[in-house]
Write a structure and sequence with these properties.
The complex is a heterodimer. Chain A is of the alpha+beta class. Chain A has 6 domains: 151 residues, 2Fe-2S iron-sulphur cluster binding domain, sarcosine oxidase, alpha subunit, N-terminal domain (Ubiquitin-like (UB roll)), CATH 3.10.20.440; 188 residues, 3-Layer(bba) Sandwich (FAD/NAD(P)-binding domain); 112 residues, FAD/NAD(P)-binding domain; 147 residues, 2-Layer Sandwich (Gyrase A, domain 2), CATH 3.30.1360.120; 89 residues, Alpha-Beta Plaits; 98 residues, Aminomethyltransferase beta-barrel domains (Elongation Factor Tu (Ef-tu), domain 3). Chain A is built from 26 helices and 49 strands. Chain A is elongated. Chain A starts with 9 loop residues before the first strand and ends with a helix. By secondary structure, chain B is mainly beta. In chain B, the strands form 2 sheets. In chain B, strands 3-4-5-6 form a 4-stranded antiparallel beta sheet. Chain B has a two-stranded antiparallel ribbon with strand order 1-2. In chain B, strand 5 and strand 6 form a beta hairpin. The chains are: A alpha+beta, B mainly beta.
């Protein structure tokens, strides 16, 4: 019911929306809950477990009952609080957890079964048969209990992420937050004022309070304008600070205003990471319920929410309101309602000593013991000193006191501190470095006290930041004492709810205590109290007070559960904003990418890189045809392959040679300028880290290559070696992977291709195997290396990356004219397996130099990383699995990497495991399948037969063990 | 968490990666009990801890970060090289 002349809504702008298919109208400035209440809709949802009809209980983000699904189809968002959902034209909202309708819900039968559904019901009941767990019980439970559902389709919501830095973050824009922001801003601090509501003012928008001689809401609007005009203040409304993290870092979720959200490409919200040097927590306080029987009936609301609906949205929560409280703040509800012409049925105050200045039926020392009514409250039972009494009312405005919103002060692990006078937990001091607490969050409950503490904390923060704070006047406002008689539960017939969202009653908590779940953390998990989106905002203190009573302990001795971020639910889409698709995994392209795509090559991922799989030609319908052709092309003519993805590290300095000696197992200092050497690198634990080549370009200048996969790890390793292990040496290493485009040119006709491309053929003729030197290509300074990963005459030529694309074209075109062409990763892999060369398929982190047959490369004469650990007996034991070649010799001709090796006669079970296959391919050069793998005592077993078994793919192959490397084992072709 | 890099200033945690306890490399190229201890045995202190961190998304410097594993308070950050006496 709307009250004329009340509220801060714009009555000139009507907004139509739908709820459960019915059309409704509200006003600009309404929330979904206020508009529904104004239209007489009280039931907004069904409860989690018992499917009880529920209405809005609060007017903020702590709402446990009025959870709705917004939107349709893929864009639907479940569990949105109707109390914070801004009304906008065309809003589509649906109630949840009911079937077929909100008014008639079949599963409300659960409520009749409630005696069987207490805490731990699931654990005790659905135990056998075990086969029913996943197929019968879980689907049934999931259907019966729960909240809203996701659409199951990919989310369309777009979220953004952003970062902000400030001197002072003020969390909460009520009277305390406004004063803190003003005081710090006037001192010159860079201030962010974050407020989860759409407007600044906090409780001032919900009360009839005067500040500075004017209406509190008007004063807040003036302050907002004043702060907004300051260049050093950023006001972020619709922004809930969700978590406090180490080092002054805060998470915050900003919702997009509905009028902007409707625009094309507008984001649904933004997840902020705010780094603040200081913070003032001015998050206010949350009013708490009292657990009296049937306190969940629609119409039972928080007293502060009743005032908020009246004063902010001009909505009377009911026609006849009974006010029930244990503290002074409940009394102002009576005054506000009567002033607006709403009938107040009674004021029930649990304090016997309370007095009342209002013209109302007043019951001091009395309690509400129950409610009655079908779809909502129709009558209220109260117990007074004279006995029971039944009063007709459709709304109960409850205040059990106020809980300071301590969450953010406790996010880093600290526990709040009990205050007897306020009967509430206060934030611990100094728990989050740089954060102080102001206003109601610190237990200051009067408007004047809030303004004063906000001002003081703002000034304190400014001084702490080294700023001089000018005098800021404290605006006059009402002050008052706060008197409260702790009241957590009222005895009586019927269930009394503590946690409305999770359907946890006083009985459940008492049962938990009886069954010895006496720790508050155990009780929470046994009963589910305070779980899920609620995070204990409504129920925490009440539930632990009941637990304290049931276990005979004090409230502080019982303690609270752990406060964890986020303070309000954050969509995964918001936290992961910017982490989808290409921003999740950026694409790294080589300079030959466009030319490769143009030649129709399918690309495969190598880390973030994209590399060609093969280059199909006309008539080739299977990748193997292309691969086989490319292999033979390299063996018989010439092939070109982009190898730029290999890591390249430039090492310079007088101590560069000594540094590389330390990094590699073999001696790079012995390398003459103009020569290249294969190198092996170990980790400190003595296992192989990576391999690659090391070229000495000049006396104090080296270029080393790493594998594509380990480029980052090797750079980090080299930095550690240079900066930490041998900091005194004069050598510097820097990654130049992106700076150079490098191409392998391999095959008997490789020289012919290069001869056409190089400016001076002389350099080519003079270059010996494993030599390197400067060359020129079209006047561009380039580097030529004579190295081979294919076993053929091979070169690698490197040019500055900007010339890569054109060099690739020139090389490939020339190669094609000679019966060759470009080759991809498949052929590259076959070529190296035919040669027995290793990659990270073999050096996978658990192998030693001994295992891959390179123990001879570990220099005895010098120190190198991994040397002490590699010398351990067990890492050179003859019984270890050693690198071998394998070829099928039985009827089955396939070899699958991942297969395990067994002795021919042994049963293929784990106990008989002899090793495994790491790489395998069809070799067009040999005409059969070959593989590489590790076999126990492998090098001594050449010629033996073993069985390769792939249990996953159901394959078994009899193989002969061979030396790894089939093509030209003496290496005459690559040297020639 | 934010780490004050001596070269880059206060930077977000995500620019760094941690290696582990900042222990000195044992002397000698032969396997020894000291090497065994260095490679395999780690304390798990509740309180002050000295760790190697790498500013990989920044200047590439290795740092020794002294921090409290309970409060996450960072007491000191120095270049690992400077610490080693370079």
């Amino acid at each position: 019911m709307r009250i004329d002349g009340k509220g801060r809504i714009d009555r000139t702008r009507r907004v139509s929306f739908s709820f459960d298919g019915h059309r409704h109208t509200g006003f600009s400035g309404d929330t979904l809950a206020s508009a529904l209440l104004a239209d007489g809709v009280r039931v907004m949802g069904r409860s989690f477990k018992y499917h009880r009809p529920r209405g809005a209980m609060t007017a903020g983000s702590e709402e446990p009952n009025a959870l709705v699904t917004l939107g349709l189809g893929a864009a639907q968002v479940p569990n949105c609080r109707a109390t914070t959902t801004e009304l906008h034209e065309g809003l589509v909202a649906r109630s949840q957890n009911r079937w077929p309708s909100l008014g008639f819900d079949v599963l409300a039968v659960n409520d009749l079964m409630a005696p069987f559904f207490g805490a731990g019901f699931y654990y005790k009941t659905f135990m056998w048969p075990r086969a029913f767990w996943e197929k019968v019980y879980e689907p049934a439970i999931r259907r019966a209990a729960g909240l809203g559902a996701l659409s199951g389709q990919p989310a369309e919501d777009r979220y953004e992420r952003a970062y902000a830095h400030c001197d002072l973050l003020v969390i909460g824009g009520g009277p305390a937050g406004l004063m803190a922001a003003l005081a710090a801003a006037e001192a010159g601090a860079d201030v962010i004022l974050a407020e989860e509501d759409v407007a600044l003012g906090g409780r001032l928008l919900a009360e009839t309070e005067e500040v500075d001689g004017q209406d509190g809401g008007d004063w807040a609007a003036e302050m907002a304008a004043r702060l907004g005009a300051m260049p050093n203040v950023r006001i972020m409304t619709r922004t809930a600070v969700t978590g406090a993290y180490d080092g002054g870092t805060f998470g915050a979720l900003e919702r997009t205003a509905p009028d902007i959200e409707g625009r094309p490409h507008a984001p649904a919200g933004c997840f902020w990471r705010i780094a603040a040097r200081r913070a003032v927590l001015a998050a206010g306080a949350l009013e708490r319920p009292v657990a009296f029987p049937n306190n969940d009936r629609p119409g039972v609301m928080m007293a502060g929410a009743v005032r908020a609906y009246l004063n902010r949205w001009g909505v009377a929560a009911g026609r006849s309101v009974l006010v029930f409280g244990n503290n002074d703040s409940a009394h102002r509800t009576v005054a506000d309602l009567q002033e607006a012409g709403v009938h107040v049925a009674a004021l029930v105050d649990a304090r016997a000593h309370a007095t009342c200045g209002h013209d109302v039926a007043f019951y001091p020392g009395a309690q509400v013991t129950g409610t009655a009514g079908r779809r909502g409250v129709e009558a209220v039972c109260i117990a007074t000193a004279r006995g029971e009494e039944r009063i007709a009312a459709d709304t109960v405005a409850v205040s059990g006191g106020w809980n300071p919103t301590v969450h953010l002060a406790c996010h880093t692990g600290a526990r709040p501190v009990w205050d007897d006078r306020l009967a509430a937990f206060l934030p611990p001091e100094g728990a989050v470095p740089g954060m102080r607490v102001a206003g109601a969050a610190a237990g200051h409950f009067s408007t004047r006290a809030c303004l004063k503490s906000g001002l003081a904390e703002g000034r304190h923060a400014a001084k702490d930041l080294g700023l001089k704070a000018p005098a800021t006047d404290l605006p006059p406002a009402s002050d008052g004492s706060f008197d409260i008689l702790p009241l957590w539960q009222v005895e009586g017939r019927g269930r009394a709810w503590l946690d409305f969202q999770n359907d946890v009653t006083v009985k459940d908590v008492e049962l938990a205590a009886r069954e010895n779940f006496r720790s508050v953390e155990h009780m929470k998990r046994y009963t589910t109290q305070g779980m899920a989106p609620d995070q204990g905002k409504n129920s925490n203190v009440g539930a632990l007070a009941v637990l304290a009573e049931a276990t005979g302990r004090s409230i502080p001795a019982t303690g609270t559960t752990t406060f964890r971020p986020p303070f309000v639910p954050v969509p995964i889409a918001a936290m992961g904003a910017g982490g989808k698709g290409k921003t999740f995994a950026p694409e790294r392209f080589t300079t030959s990418h466009a030319g490769t795509i143009r030649r129709g090559a399918p690309m495969i991922e190598a880390g973030l890189w994209y590399r060609p799989s093969y280059f199909p030609r006309k008539g080739e319908t299977h990748w193997r045809q292309s691969c086989d052709r490319e292999v033979m092309m390299v063996r018989e003519a010439v092939g070109v392959c982009d190898v730029s993805t290999l890591g390249k590290i430039d090492v310079q300095g007088p101590d560069a040679a000594q540094f590389l000696d330390f990094l590699y197992t073999n001696a790079m200092s012995k390398l003459a300028p103009g020569r290249v050497r294969y190198g092996l690198m170990l980790r400190e634990d003595g296992h192989v880290m990576d391999d690659g080549t090391c070229a000495r370009l000049a006396e104090d200048h080296f270029l080393v290559t790493t594998t594509t996969a380990a480029a980052g790890a090797v750079m980090r390793h080299a930095d550690f070696a240079g900066q930490v292990l041998r900091p005194g040496w004069d050598a510097r290493a820097v990654s130049v992977t992106e700076q150079w485009a490098q191409f392998a040119v391999a095959g008997p006709r490789a020289r012919d291709v290069l001869a056409d491309v190089l400016d001076d053929q002389g350099a080519l003729d003079d270059l010996p195997f494993m030599g390197c030197g400067p060359v020129a290509v079209g006047g561009v300074a380039a580097r030529l290396f004579r190295i081979s990963f294919s076993g053929e005459t091979g070169y690698e030529i490197a040019v500055p990356a900007r010339f890569g694309a054109s060099l690739f074209e020139a090389l490939v075109t020339r190669a094609e004219s000679l019966g060759g062409g470009a080759y991809g990763m498949e052929a590259l892999n076959v070529l190296r397996i035919e040669k027995g060369f290793i990659t990270h398929a073999e050096i996978h982190g658990r192998v030693t130099a001994f295992d891959v047959g390179m123990q001879g490369m570990m220099s005895r004469k010098k120190d190198f990383i991994g040397k002490p650990a590699a010398s351990r007996e067990g890492l050179m034991d003859e019984g270890r699995e050693q690198l071998v070649g394998l070829k099928p010799v039985g009827a089955v001709k396939e070899l699958l990497p991942g297969s395990h090796l067994f002795n021919e006669a042994a049963e293929p079970v784990a106990a008989n495991d002899q090793g495994y296959i790491t790489s395998a391919c069809y070799s067009p050069t040999l005409g059969h399948v070959i593989g590489l793998g590790f076999l126990a005592r492998g090098r001594a077993r050449i010629g033996e037969r073993v069985r390769a078994v792939d249990h996953l793919r159901g394959s078994a192959t009899i193989c002969e063990v061979c030396a790894p490397g089939w093509v030209d084992p003496e290496g005459g072709r690559m040297r020639g | 968490m934010r780490i004050p890099c001596p070269l880059c200033g206060m930077r977000d945690l995500r620019e760094f990666s941690v290696r582990g306890a900042a222990l000195p490399e044992p002397e000698g190229a032969a396997w020894s009990a000291a090497w065994d201890d260095y490679l395999h045995n780690r304390d798990n202190p509740a309180g002050e801890s000295r760790e190697f961190w790498y500013h990989g998304q920044g200047c590439g410097a290795w740092l020794v970060v002294t921090r409290d594993t309970v409060t996450h308070e960072i007491a000191d950050v120095v270049l690992a090289g400077a610490e080693a006496g370079a």
